[in-house]
Amino acid sequence: MTPLVEFCIVVVTVALVANTIAAIRAMKRAEAALTRATEAIEHIEAVTRQVQEVIASAQTAIQPVLRATSRIEEVAERATRTSHAVLNEIDPPLRTTLAVLAGVKQGARYLIGRLQRRMQHHEHVNGGD
Q1: What is the pLDDT of residues 78-122, one digit of tens each?
Q2: Which long-range contacts (CB under 8 A, 24 or more apart) does 90-93 make?
Q3: pTM of the model
Q4: Could you write out the DSSP letters of every residue in 18-50?
Q5: Spatial separation of the C-alpha atoms in residues 116 and 77, rounded to whole Å
Q6: Residue ranges of E strands in 6-97
Q7: Burial annotation 68-79 (CB, 10 A radius, 16+ → b, else e)
């Protein structure tokens, strides 16, 4: 064999060894990445199961909550109707009473004012006796 052929064989051998080492390192990195991906997938599956359990339990709790909400709405409507009925019955007489009281107050103020002026006029005419 000629030295050139021997040199080429050595270069090719070194290149193959370098490629093999690079391939082995790449495989180890790929294996590590696959391991991490597998762990992440397992974690995602666990979280998915938990979410499914939460959804299932929420679905069982929703119906009673909806029924309670409906009942509360009915009670609120009844209370509103009742309070409106009470206010409609109380409002007119209350307004009338307030108007009468305002009239009595105004009338009393007028009468007291007239009496005070009369007393002052009477004192003035009689000289304070």
Answers
A1: 999 998 888 888 888 888 888 999 999 999 999 999 988 888 877
A2: none
A3: 0.41
A4: HHHHHHHHHHHHHHHHHHHHHHHHHHHHHHHHH
A5: 56
A6: none
A7: eeeeeeeeeeee
